[in-house]
Amino acid sequence: MFRKTDPQLSLFDIDNMFPNILPPKDWCRIYRKQIYPLIDEDKFRGLYNEEKDKVGRPNKSIKTTISILIFMGMEKLTWREAEHQFLRRIDWLIATNTPLDKAHEAHIDHTTLFKFYCRLDKDDKAKSLFQELTLKFADACGTSLKKQRTDSFFIHGWLQILSRYGLFKETVRVFLQNLRKQKPGLCEGVVKELSRDYLANDFDLTEKDREKAQRRIKVMAKDMYLLYETFINHNQVKHYESFKTLVKVFDQQCETVEGANGEKMKIVIREKPKGEEIISTTHNTDARYVKKGKQKVCGQKGFVSESCEETNKTQFITDAEVTPSTTADVRELPQIQERLEESDMKPDEQYADAGFVNGQTILDSQANEILLEGPSSGRSQSFETYNAEDRPLDVADFKVEIEENKKELTVISCPTNQVPADQSRNPKTGNILVPFVVAVCSACQLKERCPVKIGATVATLTLDERSYAGAARHHKYMEDPGYRKKCSIRAGAEAMVSELVRGHGVRKSRHRNEVRTRLQLIFSAIACNVKRYIKHGQKYGYAMATNA
Question: What's the predicted TM-score (pTM) here?
Fold first, then answer.
């Protein structure tokens, strides 16, 4: 049954019983006065079925529950540790406005806390809370959100990274374990037909002998196909999540080939898995495997943004999101800008590294009235390479004019001042085709470095607005020291990620799915903003009071 927190004050309030037990500017007093009232319990009413629960036991205080989730993010606590701390921390009791005579009644066990947390993954209530608090914090501290910086980082899953050998073994084992629990008779019959006992206690997911591992992979693929053929038409087993995972793993990793001259069907192991959403572990089908340099990750990818105006005394995190680890930065940038606009935190300038910046994102950001700053991707940032005499030329080395209203691009001349004969746009590809005189281009000393393609009858430069925007940004970054200094403000995003990773534990996911990993990052971002807000109040005070 939904019930709001009782606002009635108590004679047994800690400040009445022990007035000077903590300093007046202690974090818990600022939290109780400034942040605790901002948690709107009515927005969480939908988590409870009032018709079903109206005769049941009232819910625990939502303000207290949300506060404990924030404290967990501030101190990297587990569920049991949070339960243990509540009745033993005077600062927690003061922060949650819990009087001594009602402390045991307000106490929340770890199971209740986790169930409330799980309910939050059904919608965006946690994200709405994060956005509302951030806006009110920024107003109270006089923080401008017109400049922001963005960065990404990998979130490691808590499961071991499996090879194909380990993936096959664990996929079959998990399915058989579930089948034994639900249909012990069926399990007993099918286990006898398999090549080995996958439910044995001495189960190992590794095999050091590479040749032996490859042979075992082929045998296990046949076992998976046998299970597939046996239960694909079973009315109940085919709906098990573990069986669906087995079918998907088999389809991604193997293929069946009809045997010649009446031979049996062959199972062939694919050289590379098929599809984009490749399952890396049967326990977390949302986790994706990716390799970046020497770093190997099986998990998700986090994206975070924060304010970066130089005049701000305190910066706040404005956006936090989790995606599959294979998501490219440039693909996520439009969604980041869309979320910032929806939450009324849209910046005028956004700073990012080369992973987010290319010709397309520069133009899309301009259309969205955001100035995207940073080096362009896909190009070397080595000054030696850029200043080398044999550096390959690109479209930004050509003299170009851009019409202000229509933003149409016109090529005026090449690096050697040759004027093009004409210019047209391909209606199918949208590329601009700029022809030059073949004889002049063939005799040019720069022809080996020039992007103009010289044919038998025509020499053509092919470009579009995206390629020119990316190339022009690269030239600006490499040639203009003032612009590089301006973009250096993005480096502060590395400190933000380090704070979230080291201080709030977001490097490693606590959960098996992407939705709850996103919740973990959101509450960590809230906790980080709360800590910054409290420190600002202790050091500078507040420009204005937060409106509850």
Answer: 0.87
